[in-house]
Specification:
Layout: H1 19-32, E1 38-47, E2 53-64, E3 67-72, E4 75-79, E5 83-88, E6 93-98, H2 108-112, H3 116-119, E7 120-130, E8 133-142, E9 149-157, E10 163-170, E11 175-184, E12 205-208
Parallel strand pairs: 6-12
Antiparallel strand pairs: 1-2, 1-11, 2-3, 3-4, 4-5, 5-6, 7-8, 8-9, 9-10, 10-11
């Protein structure tokens, strides 16, 4: 849910997507855009090709407009709408890059809204019970076959039209499962929360790549 990377979209027409799946995803996107600010707790579970757990991390993501902040074990990512600042706790190092609105990058907002439109083919697999919730499983296949993953499963709460879990299948065999533990769609989020404050990180080394 909080993977921030790049994707190279290819022209449509390389296959057909399931219109029923699109209806579900469009409803999720439309509802998310009505939220003023969002704070969500999540867990990230990593499994290897044999299905053995390689660890679980917990984190929090804040979203407001085009801004976001992701806090996970050992790392924080700040996006103020113009720049992306990634802080590595173990190295006490901050890397700053320029946000390119025209790039096909995956941001937390796009995961909840319209990231699927150009980069994936998708189909509705059916209902799945997750933690007592009836969810709709949607399978996404990247159009660009050079991506490091070959499949993404998205689980949408059928009642609330929100994403509760996302599972990414890498070509290496590793699987990453992002689960939303709690979400506040009217969070008291300030603009200052999306800006890295060096005064709070004594001795931080800044690598500015803008």
């Amino acid at each position: 849910m909080v993977c921030v990377g790049s994707m190279n979209a290819q022209p449509a027409g390389m296959g057909k997507s399931d219109p029923e799946a699109k209806k579900v995803l469009d409803a999720v996107s439309a509802k998310f855009k009505t939220f003023k600010a969002v704070q969500s707790n999540f867990t990230l579970k990593v499994e290897n090709s044999a299905g053995k757990s390689m660890g679980t991390k917990t984190g929090t993501v804040y979203m407001k407009g085009t801004k976001y902040r992701v806090s996970v074990t050992g790392q924080e990512i700040f996006c103020d709408g113009s720049n992306i600042s990634t802080y590595d706790k173990s190295a006490n190092e901050l890397t700053i890059t320029k946000l390119d609105p025209s790039a096909n990058s995956i941001t937390p907002q796009k995961i909840f809204t319209n990231f699927y439109d150009k980069d994936f083919l998708y189909k509705l697999n059916g209902d799945v019970n997750i933690g007592g919730k009836v969810t709709q499983e949607i399978e996404l296949t990247p159009i660009d076959k050079s991506e490091p993953f070959f499949k993404v499963l998205v689980y949408v709460d059928k009642k609330n039209q929100t994403i509760v879990s996302t599972k990414v299948f890498e070509k290496t065999g590793n699987k990453y499962t992002y689960s939303v533990a709690k979400i506040n769609t009217n969070a008291p989020v300030t603009d200052e929360q999306f800006v890295f404050d060096a005064n709070k990180y004594p001795g931080v080394e800044v690598v500015d790549l803008r």
